[in-house]
């Protein structure tokens, strides 16, 4: 089953108390948190530091969630042509792209319960998938961080953060669900803002102007259920169908080809709480009896994922829009927000996750060097 390398988990470690070692805690091992860690380790080569990434789930990747050996995705699938930061990242990590198949006719359901073939050009706008799925971005970054760097990064899985305190001595206490605490000098919050504000207690409170925005910031795709149906043959291609279909009457709503050299598959966007049988029945209704017997069905209902969605309506309302209030640092430069949702470009997408992770790393590293210089000159920071 899907697995984004949880074997890289390391034992919980106490971060160093050495005052010269900057202790950074990143909350969330999704694409944004991992990209931020990757860039920080590169920028901080000359600044002693220790990064601890604390992840609630038993896996890394967040909303990228793949079955790597089948090149299948239960979370994000596509990299769009104008998403240059995530494309560059995939290139740097040596991850090959896969074409998104869309040859042939598509199907649209009709009010009388049948489906009508329709010719649709350029359905996916040139979007590509990734070999190993988009989870391979996170798996490759983790591999780089744990194997190639000089042990400056720890990852702790199964560790939901429940509260974060900014202390009088300017240190930060990050508390986990098991009451274990990690001390830090800087904290990067790389989880969806709406989830942050409803599940993590922050003391002192952040400004109300910020909290208002975080509460309203929809988590992209958090109310979606995604299913993948694997078949022995790509029978839709044999019938000159693209595999793309749309229904606005069924709980399963949008089908796409998800085949590659390793399997023949359709993936389906569904409404929250769609069952395995409802996906199969809907696929049969749209495509006919060929769809009856998938050899495997994988399904992830993101609306029920406690570490993505804060309510069933979380992802409704399109792409999130927040202002620079969400992109400032708080607590005297000690607290930063990094998640796709707060990106100033392509928020909600993989591109936003990468762009924001890079931006936070750049700004935080710059601040850390400034603070280091000041403290070397005897100035209180
Ligand atoms: C079904 C689906 C399809 C999508 N399709 C596409 C697509 O085709 N193209 C595209 O560009 N984007 C797509 N997206 C969006 C894309 O997946 C996200 O933009 C991106 O993965 C967000 O990364 P992130 O790091 O900001 O957040 P996340 O991936 O949500 O990572 C946040 C991390 O924080 C962790 N966490 C949460 N709470 C805590 C806590 N209290 N303590 C510690 N850790 C915590 C989570 O477990 C998670 O690992 C899709 C998303 C979904 C769900």
Walk me through the topology.
Layout: E1 22-27, H1 31-43, E2 49-54, E3 66-67, E4 72-73, H2 84-92, E5 97-99, E6 105-109, E7 115-118, E8 128-130, H3 135-148, E9 153-156, E10 161-166, E11 172-176, E12 181-184, E13 186-189, H4 193-199, E14 201-203, H5 208-216, E15 224-231, H6 235-238, E16 241-246, E17 252-257, E18 264-271, H7 276-287, E19 296-301, E20 335-337, H8 350-376
Parallel strand pairs: 1-2, 1-13, 2-9, 6-16, 10-14, 13-20
Antiparallel strand pairs: 3-4, 5-8, 6-7, 10-11, 11-12, 15-18, 15-19, 16-17, 17-18
The structure holds flavin-adenine dinucleotide (FAD).
Flavin-adenine dinucleotide binds next to helix 1, helix 4, strand 15 and helix 8.
Summarize the structure.
The protein is α/β, with parallel strands linked by helices and 381 residues long. The protein is 25% helix and 25% strand.
Question: What does the model show?
Answer:
The protein has 381 residues and is an alpha/beta fold. It has 2 domains: 6-63 and 135-219 and 317-376, FAD/NAD(P)-binding domain, CATH 3.50.50.60; 69-132 and 223-304, Polyamine Oxidase, Chain A, domain 2 (Alpha-Beta Complex), CATH 3.90.660. The chain is built from 8 helices and 20 strands. A hairpin with a 5-residue loop joins strand 6 and strand 7 (115-118). Helix 1 (31-43) runs parallel beside helix 3, helix 2 packs across helix 8 and helix 4 (193-199) crosses helix 5. The N and C termini lie far apart (48 Å). Residues 1-18 have low confidence and may be disordered. The structure holds flavin-adenine dinucleotide (FAD). Flavin-adenine dinucleotide (FAD) is lined by residues 27-33, 54-57, 62-64, 75-78, 160-161, 190-192, 195, 199-200, 220-221, 224, 226, 302, 307-308, 339-340, 348-353.
